[in-house]
Design goal:
Dihydrodipicolinate Reductase, domain 2; 8-stranded antiparallel beta sheet; alpha+beta
Length: 178
Amino acid sequence: MLFRNGTHLVDAVCYFAEADPVWVIAAHERGFEDYGIEYKGEGGKDPRLDPASTLIIEFENGIRGIVNSAKMTPAIFEFDLLGPNGRYWVTDKHCTVWKTDQPEDSPKEVASPQASGYADHFGDTLIPAVQELAIMIWNSTPSSSPARRARNTLEIMLGALVSQSQDNTKIYLPLPRK
């Protein structure tokens, strides 16, 4: 679901891409084709009302992210990042990484970055976030999740609504401001 769970997927894609998004293309699932360009905020209360969508996102550094937040597919947390020097395939169970020295070379699988995955209960997930907030305050250090990336995530999602409303066209980012 694009807004209910998709925000986390899109944010993760932005994290790994390490660049600003350039454009987005979206295709909503059947039943959401005419959803419109304004998020109605109903999906948080009833997931059936949240638009389900597949996105292709291109970033300034040439990386493309593919996010599928469709409801009519198996329930798998998954996204794919492809770029000039490799690929990340991330699911709720694993992360596979391939690297290459130059575009169009044959990529080789390499060790995945360290990640703890989902914790068995919610408390363990919040402890690192609270620790990071404390360190940010005590040491005036920047966040690992800067506001710019949060803005990019929202920009991509709103661009996805516009893309769908314009027959799945490529929407350049940032969107025009009113």
